[in-house]
Amino acid sequence: MSLHTKMSVSVGGVTFPNPFIAASGTFGYGDDYEPLYPVNIWGGISCKGTTLNKRQGNLPPRIAETPSGMLNSVGLQNCGIDDFIEKLLPSLKSRANVVIANLAGEKIEDYVESAAKLDKSAVDMVELNISCPNVKQGGLSFGVSTQATAAITKAVRAATSKPLMVKLSPNVTDITEIAKAAQSEGANALSLINTLLGMRIDIKTRRPILRNNVGGLSGPAVLPVAVRMVWQVARAVDIDIVGMGGISCLNDALEFLIAGAKAVQIGTALFTDPHLPTKIPSELEQYMKENKLNSITQITGTVEPW
Amino acid sequence: MYKCKLYHVIEKKAISAGVYSFTVLCGDIAALAVPGQFVHIKVEGFTLRRPISICDIDKDEGTIRIVFEVRGCGTAKLAETRVGDSIDLLGPLGNGFELPSQTENSSLNAILIGGGMGVAPLYGMAKLHANKAVALMGFRGYDKIILADDFKQTGAQVIICTQDGSVGTKGLVTEPLNKLLESDDVGVVYACGPVPMLKAVAEICTRANVLCRVSLEERMACGVGACAGCACKSVGETGEQMVRVCKEGPVFNAREVLL
Question: Count of H helices and E strands in chain B?
Fold first, then answer.
């Protein structure tokens, strides 16, 4: 069996040549890191969160460093679904292995309209970002309620036959209930976790560092929370899981796989070490040799809890 | 085009209290770099790199010089680097200043306005313009002055302003700028420093109808345009939009950004 096949994984019916996927919002549309390496070094890329209409995003500052991580509140700055499909997708599709469109919105109707457009596009998979504020329901995130998660998954499911992966928010009481709601309405896979809501304050000015006051925490700081949630969700659902949250080396990625993920996404670690995706696949190859694995999926969900 | 590798620090100087100058041997970065660009430096133990402007480029020696101030734990850690140590640089990044041949009025003088640490990225432009440059350098006081001798050695005319009047003209850079703009041989103004200074400089240049380019600073994550973390508001023909300081900047036409 070739190495290529050994490292390949299937998630929600989509085959990735390796289990490492660029996380949405950290790799743009695949060309910003071209001076260092081509985008096809990744098993796939999850594109920047895209909404029906163009969005300016939040005012700066949008970034704050934290112990072992960072906060961001970019505010979904993006070019809108039409420009994504017409101007960015054709080139990306020709260069990348698997292209995942990350779909965001404020109203179910907007998600549905975007999903219908993506259905006719060349994207390989749709990742549904349900951490966005639901403007019709007082701005509370879709992803914090089982009803809203079910409703939006159902609506988007009806609008596209593309493999659908729902990206779960960790800012919930019981993530397994949300995961089950997404599964029951037709999600083919789940990705988790999105960022944890956080805040930092400048003690001199008494102003929050982020202009949006609060933002999403990512980076190594969130890893144990993410591993725990992947483990819990893996026991609650049957669909495939893509794990993410603070992965910065192969061992981190392996924790997620062992906890129950079939693939992982990597994001914030790129900001520290842009070369990470060039190192991790060869480290995995070495690991597989040492552990005599024929397929990396052999370790998925092999955690042995006490 | 940019690189991301380990490079040796071959010279380190403390040039003022808490301000350091590193010369880094990085031939490939030096070959690509132009004044006004920056490097994104990895600091051990920190998630985010530190964006630091390139102060000087020596393409023959294959070196760049960076000058930075210790402002927090990250830059304090970076300041612990010793000669012979390696540092991980991502760069050169962003759009630099236009070179003299690229500006329309290259026979005219350039005014380089730096406030505090903002003088550092202008040094390369002083070298290029030499005696066709006036360097207007503003500092809080005597103990904050940096790079004044370096600027003088380029042949540029140097005017120092201090807020406490301890050296040079007492007050802000705006007063000498107004005087300089009374003559009509100024082709371009380059500015880097605190936002209030940039704002004032941009307004004066607009009134005088002189091209003004500003170099901006912003909290940054990726540094290469992928994350949209370092935004600033720009105004163009298509209305207001957010642009990335790391990719569309850090140098902007002052008329095109809302400071």
Answer: 6, 15
Nearest CB to A77 within list B1, B74, B231 = B231
Mean pLDDT value across chain B: 94
Cβ contacts of A63 on chain B, cutoff 8 Å: 48, 219-221, 229-230
Q: Residues of B at the A interface (Cβ-Cβ below 8 Å)?
A: 1-4, 42, 46-49, 74, 90, 218-233, 240-242, 247
**What is the tens place of the pLDDT at every residue in B65-100?**
999 999 999 999 999 999 999 999 999 999 999 876
Chain position carrying tokens 């503003």:
B138
Annotated catalytic residue A47: no
CA B28 from chain centre, in angstroms, equals 21
Element (H, E) at B244: strand B239-244
- A60 with B230: Cβ contact below 8 A: yes
The pairing of strands A207-208 and A201-202 is antiparallel
pLDDT in tens, A38-93: 999 999 999 999 999 999 999 999 999 999 999 999 999 999 999 999 999 999 99
pLDDT along chain A (306 residues), means of 10: 75 97 96 96 97 94 96 95 97 97 94 98 97 72 94 97 97 97 98 96 96 95 98 98 98 98 98 97 95 95 97
What are the DSSP E strand ranges found in B129-221? 133-139, 157-162, 169-170, 186-192, 211-215
Q: Which of A25, A68, A271 sits opposite B49 (nearest CB)?
A: A271
Gap between the Cα atoms of A88 and B10, Å rounded: 43
How far does the CA of residue A154 sit from the closest CA of chain B (Å)? 30
Output the pLDDT for position A271.
Answer: 98
| ipTM of this complex | 0.94
Of the candidates B132, B140, B141, B255, the one whose C-alpha atom is nearest the C-alpha of residue B198 is B255
Task: For residue A113, give every residue at least 6 positions away whose Cβ sits within 8 Å of its Cβ, in sequence order, or none.
Answer: A52, A81, A159
CA A156 to chain centre: 17
State whether A74 and B247 contact (CB < 8 Å).
Answer: no
